[in-house]
Amino acid sequence: MNPYLVGIVVPFVFSYILSKKSSKQRGLPVDVGGEPGYAIRNYRFTSPVETQWEGVTTLAELFDLACKNFATKRMLGTRKLISSEIEVTADGRSFEKFHFGEYEWLSYNQAYDAVCNFASGIVHLGAIFADTRAELAPLKTVNWCLFMWGCFRRNITVVTIYASLGEEALCHSLNETEVSTVVCGHKELIKLIGISGQLDTVKRVIYMNDEGIAKDVSLAEKNTQWTLASFEDVGRIGRENPVAAEMPVSADIAVIMYTSGSTGLPKGVMMTHGNILSTLSAVMTIVPGLGRKDVYLAYLPLAHVLELAAESLMVAVGISIGYGSPLTLTDTSNKIKKGTKGDASVLRPTLMVAVPAILDRVRDGVRKKVDAKGGLSRKLFDIAYGRRLAAINGSWFGAWGLEKMLWDFLVFRKVRAVLGGHIRFLLSGGAPLSGVTQRFINICLGAPIGQGYGLTETCAGGTFSEYDDTTVGRVGAPLPCSFLKLIDWPEGGYLTVDTPMPRGEIVIGGPNVTAGYFKNEEKTKEVYKVDERGMRWFYTGDIGRFHPDGCLEIIDRKKDIVKLQHGEYVSLGKVEAALSVSPYVDNIMLHADPFHSYCVALVVPAYQALESWAKSQGIIYSDLSELCQKEAAVKEVQGSLVKAAKQTRLEKFEIPAKIKLMEEAWTPESGLVTAALKLKREVLRKRFADDLSKLYA
Question: Are 588 and 618 spatial neighbours (Cβ–Cβ below 8 Å)?
């Protein structure tokens, strides 16, 4: 056969297939009750699914079934700490670096025995408050997971609270739920001791044995009236004094999950066993081939609903879960000792969940590395990327077949090795993912990224991109557990009769919609509604539009819309997502004031990129603080933002007229972003009020 003919026919065939896939109907209109709107259901299910496992109605039953089905399989894995050291950089900054070994595993059988022991030993457990990933002691995460399943086995409600919450939010969450027992690690115990005088109901603390804990336990014993016991003590007591399981029913509250408090004090969302199970059942039908051959890398906090749902599903289908941390994820992560392996390289996962902020950093890291090499390496990467992009977009001349294999071997194989080289599916959730990042990661990893949309109030259930959906910027069709409805928001100009697509506030209905907010009836009545047919709906406050194939696109948020002086509306989140594509941006907060006609922004620069630019320009500075104040640096970053804005077709009034470069990163520990790295907008506004005022001066 003529080789030139193959080079033309193969791309044509694939582009034809892609064009057929793009027209696939993924969501269908459905008749629903409640407030009038435009409603869509999943194309395969006429009514929302509640369980995929016969006879299983609770998470406790699901865990028992999994341990029976996958008894000898590896379940939970952690890495042993080999050594740690302090590394000092040329400018005097010090960083702690770790060297971890291979993963060590608990089987499903071993996990079941441990859960039964803990269930007997924690009869009155009231809360779990601890980082669910570890920098020093990865076993802490396994303990968290075992405690959670142990609580379910005794029908004890687990209260999850982000370890990064400030003192006020911690006191509020612990006192509101009248917690009697707290489970914590080293860092969290220090925080608890500091606020012990403000805690009304805490009587017992179960601590996890990690480095430095003995000193803090002694301090707690001297300064509090708490009874303290180690994780090992609880297991031993339970093993010596076994108690029969007290299994829950579907309507029992499994978790009170406190939100990260991005808009004020956190609210406790009450999730029943049935709520969570319906989301797990729905996702089971979407990701193809989920099963025991898969390996899942867990590094997000279990206090985040996306991670809680993901890990619960992994357990249900017999997948091995290896724990890591954002700071130890790759070989070049901040906490990994040079020359040693990060979590992904050792575990070689096939599945991962990520929030957009993490994927943005992966994209920036790859791009910076390519640009730093320059020359032939950069040219090859750009050619390979362009060819793959053309293929995905349906071009006849894109890279398919043997050419794709060639580019994978020459270029993308090295990129894929960053996350272990075996990723077959990535799920992004928690916030909108930019189309640029989605396509970049998709091409470089050679695996689809499914965008999902859901909230704590819907147990992470809402929509999910299917495996064969090659589009970007959308969050997929409704999951089989949910109906999605758009309702008019006239004040913002979003109507279901809009063309070419219906638009409006997103409302989610189904068995995954939670019971409401703990001890907050007023707020519950405001955003939860039950229609005349008995369907429970949650009003999200997000604005979306339905594409003709039934997929949802998030286009705005009611609370993020600000009207400028001359009447233009600015969507803060949308603009921030667009500007984050700039290689100089690590984080950004847009600020709009109704008394002004322009926007301003606080920018946390990608320090390595900014310093590389300064070096190339011969700019002299003593530290980052001085560099961030230099007019040339501000001008360079501002120019990059304008370029990013033009690429994403922002309006002129949406582009920040003035910016301030921030010398310190925004972290959950600083209280400026949530554990999922979302902006705490009100906190940022208050903290940097003077800087914002100067930008408007």
Answer: no
Q: Does domain 564-696 have CATH number 3.30.300.30?
A: yes
Residue extents of the structural domains in the chain: 3-48+357-421+423-504+544-557, 59-350, 564-696
Contacts of 141 (CB under 8 A, 6+ apart): 78, 131, 132, 133, 134, 298, 302, 323
Q: Provide the pLDDT confidence category of residue 281 given band limits of 50, 70 and 90.
A: very high
Choice between 641 and 87, residue whose per-residue pLDDT is larger:
641
564-696 shares the fold of 59-350: no
Span 214-240, average pLDDT: 86
Instruction: Give the number of other Cβ atoms within 10 Å of residue 667's Cβ.
Output: 14
Asked if omega into 500 is within 30° of 0 (cis), the reply is yes
Q: What is the pLDDT of residue 395?
A: 64
196-230 in b/e burial notation, b at 16+ Cβ within 10 A?
Answer: eeebeebebbbbbbbeebeebbeebeeebebebbe
Say yes or no to pLDDT of 323 above 60: yes
- Measure the CA–CA gap between 160 and 218, rounded to whole angstroms: 25
- Alpha-carbon gap, residue 515 to 36, rounded angstroms: 23
- pLDDT, position 658: 95
Say what the pLDDT of residue 132 is. Answer: 42
Residue among 78, 79, 152, 55 nearest 112 (CA): 152
Write down the CATH superfamily of domain 59-350.
ANL, N-terminal domain (3.40.50.12780)
Task: Give me the pLDDT at residue 46, please.
Answer: 92
Q: Quote the CA–CA distance of 360 and 606 in Å, as a whole number.
A: 11
The sign of the torsion formed by the CA atoms of 269, 274, 275, 280 equals positive
